[in-house]
Write a structure and sequence with these properties.
41% of the residues lie in helices and 18% in strands. The protein has helices at 38-48, 53-72, 117-120, 141-157, 208-218, 231-242, 297-304, 313-318, 320-338, 357-364, 372-382, 388-424, 440-444, 446-465, 476-487, and strands at residues 3-4, 82-83, 95-103, 107-116, 122-131, 171-177, 181-185, 188-191, 223-229, 246-252, 256-263, 279-283, 433-438, 468-472. The chain has a six-stranded mixed beta sheet with strand order 1-5-4-3-6-9. A six-stranded mixed beta sheet has the order 2-12-11-10-13-14, sandwiched between helices. β7 and β8 (188-191) form a beta hairpin.
Length: 495
């Protein structure tokens, strides 16, 4: 079904459950010589997760250093520092009809936007979201892209109303492709590998834009890809359209990433004489960062059992995919060693990822005297009967993990800003600079968001931090891709 809206509805990140009346036996703690107290486990956790100012400074400095190393030479650091080849950013002058395709998981979105220049800006938008049939996730490249192109063709047939293409033009599309790609130009990129549960044959090593263009041709769809972008790059472009001070974009959701506007002459591994603006967007892939992070035994165990051991360590400490799982592992240890929930260990608590980040977010919002919502969530998702004292310990564990994650994310942002400030000789901290944030973790987890902002303020000081504006840019990657198609259009704009 086609929807006309500026942005689609976003599912609430914090899940509220009605409290259930369950029997809650007295919790036995610190019984016998083989047990330890839940409080002692919590104390060690808080010590291992601590992010005092010196730790934050080290993380920020190391992030800036790793960025420079990654820009100097391919493989120079953990950060890939991928070049986007975006030479022109949206200015607000863009006019015309442009499309976007956002493929980042088991669902994809198609979108069209009518742009009216400085005076009218975004005249109208429409989008559809479609689920990819499971069999296509394991099929051939041609089958997957033919399906996507067929949806796009049907969507294009519904074009009308406020949407109109200027005579003599081909419809242009921005393609947000959130899988590992080696970008070779603004409108081409070689797929490195499929992730997120996809195992499509015949695509690795091929240009994904060529795959899509071929499928559109088979559908007799008169449309061409003008821009291939990562979702973080799309977020920056979408936010920049409304605010010229946007210089950084960060996604904090299930996963995490960051990109920023960089000077071409500050990228030794890339000297493109064809660059007209002298700037481009660099996709840091900062989830791979690991230098100096405060890690616990629970982080190390989770990493060792993951599908990518010793990789994406920053992502595993700050993103929504992992925060709930870290908390579950701590609570399991408390249940086993400190009898936090009685003498038996709940079977559900043994299941990896049974406790999700939306659950720990919802528990932290419980302000009732007996923490009934916490008790309800523990019972629902972990099969746990809990006392009020046990629930208080659970809240402290959630807060410890969320605090570390938010503060480390804030330090990462400061690291990017420091790198930009040093190279631009004072042109970042001395003026209003906007960091565009997207993702459900940032949007819906108020404690995490507060800890992030506090870390930025601590690191930069009250005076400089007043110039750094962290703004929520909801669902910016889709329209951002359409805007980048507009700025990289083969047609001249009528300004």
């Amino acid at each position: 079904m086609s929807v006309t809206a500026s942005t689609p509805a976003v599912r609430t990140f914090c899940i509220t459950r009605s409290a259930k009346m369950v029997s809650r036996p007295r919790v036995v703690m610190a019984v016998g010589s083989n047990t330890i107290s839940g409080a002692s486990i919590l104390t060690k956790l808080q010590k291992d997760c601590a992010t005092p100012l010196p730790v934050l400074r080290h993380v920020a400095d190391a992030m800036a250093d790793d960025m420079r190393a990654g820009l100097a030479v391919e493989g120079g650091s953990e950060l890939q520092m991928i070049l986007s080849y975006v030479d022109a950013l949206p200015t607000g002058n863009e006019k015309g009809l442009f499309y976007a395709l956002d493929l980042g998981g088991t669902n994809f979105r198609v979108l069209r936007v009518q742009l009216g220049g400085k005076e009218e800006r975004v005249i109208s938008t429409e989008f559809e979201q479609v689920s990819i049939p499971p069999e296509l996730m394991f099929g051939t490249s041609e089958e997957l892209f033919d399906f996507i192109a067929s949806v796009l063709a049907k969507f294009a047939l519904k074009e009308g109303g406020k949407f109109h293409l200027q005579q003599g033009r081909t419809r242009e599309i921005g393609f947000t492709f959130s899988f590992p790609v080696k970008q070779t130009s603004i409108d081409s990129g070689i797929l490195i590998k499929w992730t997120k549960g996809f195992a499509v044959s015949g695509t690795a090593g091929k240009d994904v834009v060529a795959c899509l263009n071929g499928a559109m041709k088979r559908q007799k769809l008169d449309m061409r890809v003008s821009a291939l972008v990562n979702d973080t790059v799309g977020t920056l472009a979408g936010a920049r359209y409304w605010d010229n001070d946007v210089m950084v974009a960060v996604i904090l959701g299930t996963g995490t990433n960051a990109c920023y506007v960089e000077r071409v002459d500050a990228i030794p591994k890339f000297q493109d004489p064809s660059s007209t603006s002298g700037r481009t967007i660099v996709n840091t892939e900062w989830g791979a960062f690991s230098n100096g992070l405060p890690l616990t035994e629970f982080d190390r165990e989770m990493d060792a059992e993951s599908i990518n051991p010793r990789e994406q360590i920053f992502e595993k400490t700050i993103s929504g995919m992992y925060l709930g799982e870290i908390v579950r592992r701590v609570l399991l240890r408390m249940a086993e060693a400190a009898h936090l929930f009685g003498h038996s260990v709940p079977e559900k608590l043994l299941m990896p990822f049974s406790l999700r980040t939306p659950d720990i977010c919802a528990m932290q919002q419980d302000t009732s005297k007996d923490l009934e919502e916490v008790g309800s969530i523990l019972y629902d998702v972990a099969g746990v009967n809990s006392s009020t004292n046990a629930r208080k310990i659970v809240i402290d564990v959630c807060d410890t993990i969320a605090k570390r994650g938010g503060r480390l994310a804030g330090a990462g942002i400061v690291g990017i800003l420091q790198k930009m400030e040093y190279d631009s000789k004072g042109l970042i901290f001395g003026k209003r600079t906007v960091v565009a944030m997207d993702g459900g973790l940032y949007e819906h987890y108020p404690q995490y968001r507060r800890y992030l902002q506090e870390a930025v303020t601590e690191l930069l000081g009250p005076e400089i931090s007043r110039n750094i504006v962290i703004e929520h840019s909801k669902d910016g990657s889709g329209i951002g891709a359409a805007l980048l198609a507009a700025t990289n259009s083969k047609y001249e704009h009528d300004f």
